[in-house]
Each structure stands twice: as structure tokens, then as C-alpha cells.
User: What shape does this take?
Amino acid sequence: VNRDDIRSEMGYNLFSNGKETYLINNDGRVVHTWRSQRKIFCAYLLENGNLLRDGSDNVEAELFQAGGAAGYVELVSWDNEPIWSWSARPIRRFLTHHDLEPLPGGGCLVMLWERHTKEEALAVGRSPELIPDGEVWDNHVVELRPNGKGGADEVWTWKLWDHLCQDLNPDLPNYVSCPSQATHRFDINCCPVNGKQGCRDRTTIGKKGGASSHAPQGKTGEKDWVHANAVSYSAERDAVLISLNVPCELIMVDRQSGSIVWRWGSPMNWGGGTRLEQRLFCQHAAHFVEGAGGNRVLLFNNGRQPDRHWSSVDEIEIPTAAAGAVSTTGNLAWTFGPPAGRQGSFYCTHISSVQRLGNGNTLVLMGPQAIAFEVTPQGDEVFRYVCPVQTVNGGGAECVVRQGEQRAEGRYSLFTFRRYPTTFAAFAGRDLTPCRHLEG
Assistant: This one.
């Protein structure tokens, strides 16, 4: 740990690795832990001290072998006692993935995959050449509300499948002569070459092999074709923000009408520009900035090889659009991340997160490296934490590097790293006596 206690925001940091969720202070000392029966992808601490987390069901859900796959949503108490849990059924058709969004009143938003057959995909205008896996996955956003019986009920659902367009088959009801005429819909045939792998590394396009641990060999039109990876809610707008990783685009959905009212990041997706206008590159952790009235979004802009070979954290201002119109513009309000070759430049091929802190600083997680750092609005680093926890055996166990030793080769990746201020309501009356450093 390196820190500047004067300019850094004091608080407690929450992250998960394997089946363990850790709460540490800014010195890296453990103040609390939660243990799950399943591998955890993301977790959120609530003001009442409960922990909202997901849980991996990859063993049972063998048909959903993809990055970010989860399966369970559960709420546990500060003492890790179960309060409620939920999973989508049937598990051969649906699976939760990537992110959760806690809501006022105790509910949450959850992201969900739905498998569609080749025939179902063709029925909405998918090109036969863009179904290499024999199926296509839809993305849902579902609002869950605890039912008081140890479970939760689905009270609102949005499906990307209901908002598609295509210019291939004029006999289908979602046909448009050009996607630019239907910016409120997403083109079912918007499939970058080589899929997720091609978006992250353009040098793999047209080459055989090139698979890696974080992205298998890319296929144009692969089943997880948009790879949605983040969801956020704005009460001021009553709108839901969804991050589409492979198309490199954000969409905002009006919760009342279900319509797409804003999209930004890559105008090529709807025929509104060229690659020179692309602004997002395999982004993660997109969310509404708290206290900004739903008018600003913060995200981790991962970048890609070889032409945008650096990452940045970007704050986007959403302009006001005319009633009934779909806005497709955004203004860069703040950014941090020097280009490749410059001092302080960093690059993360996948995962990673970002959070705006109460003092105006920004907390950044380089996910693949499991390194978190905090910067001021001027870009001065005031905190850095190198996570010593290594994930082994496919996430089933953790191995901690001892103090003073270098991290050995292996996987140390983290999906999220969040800080809660010392004044956070969950900490009132709790014993937060610092214990050991994780590394001993």
C-alpha cells in the first residue's frame, strides 16, 4: 500500500476473490470478511450492513461458459446469514451475469442471458452467416424485489430482443432500409469481425489461433454477441444504463416506456459514422455518477490493440435531447489515462472498474493486474493497493502472497474494488478493529 492520507479519501475497501469478500481499511488491514459457497463476481455493501452479491453456477450451467457468468443473486447479513436468494429458471435457458445494481427499497437490478435457437434468431432477422454457435443470446435487465419469503420476485423486465432492427429481410416487421433510421433499436446483425477477441485485439482478425485466457478465439456473430457487462440506475431520470462491451456502446433505457433514449460510443453500429468517431473501446463498469442528476456517466475505457493500446477512465456528460428523440451525442467532461508510451499510462485488456469518491477523487481498478489506485481531479495519484490474493483452481480457492515477497506468476484479477467512506451508515456500531494484513 502507498497512500497520501491528506489527499486520499479515508474509508473501507470492498473486493471479492474466489469465494471470499474482503473489507479492508486504507492500510490494507482486514476489518471484516464474508464467505460464500460459490465463486463471487461482484458484491455491494448496503447502508443497513447487508451484502448483496452474486454467485457462480458454472458447474450446473454448462451451457453458459462465458466471461462474467454467475447464476445466483443473494443477500446476506453483516454476519453472513442468508436473507434471500434468487436464480433464473430454467437454468438451461437463463443465467445471470456480470453486474448487479442495488435499488432504494431493498431490491436490485440484475443482468440476464437468454439462449435463443438458430430458428428464433433467424425469425428476428439475424443473418444465417452470423450464427456460428448455432444459437444467439439475448440480454435482459430484471428488477428483483424481496418477497419476504426468502426469495425475490421479478417486477420489471427489459429485453434487448424486443428492441432489434435489421436491413436484411424486408418481410419481417423489424425491417429498416438503414439502421440509421431506427436509432431507438439495435441492429441484430451488428457483429464486429472476430467478436470479442477481435474488438480487444485487431491484430488477431483474419488469423488462426490467437486465443487467450481472457477471450477465446473470436467468431464473428458469436452467441454472446454484445457481452453486456454493467448496469446502472438513475432515479432522477428513471432510466437504466447498459454497457454493451463488444459493440463498444452505451445505451440508456427509459424505465417507463422501455425505449432506448440515448446511445453513445460507436456510431458505426447504427450507420452514423466511421471508426474515426468511435470513442469507447471494450468499456467496463459504466455507471451514473452519484449526485450528477443522471446527467453524467463514469466508465473504464479499456482500449484495444494495436491502435488504442492504453486504457482511460472517462466521465461523459449526457446532453438533453428533444422529447421523443434519441440522443446520440456525449461530451467528454473529464478523463484520466495517458496514451501508450507516456508516464503513467496503463492498459487492461478486460474487466476493471472505476468509482467517483465523495471528495472528488476517482478510484480506479486495473482488473487483470488486481491493482487499485486513487487519483485527484488533477491526475495526482494518492493511493495504490496491490492485491496479494491469487485465485487458483478455477476460482475455488485463494492463495495469499506473503509480506515482502513478489507476486508469483498466476491469476490475481479482480472485477470490482469499491470504497465506502468511514461515515457510511453500514459501519455505525460495528466493530471495525483492524486485524491482519491479507499478506500476513
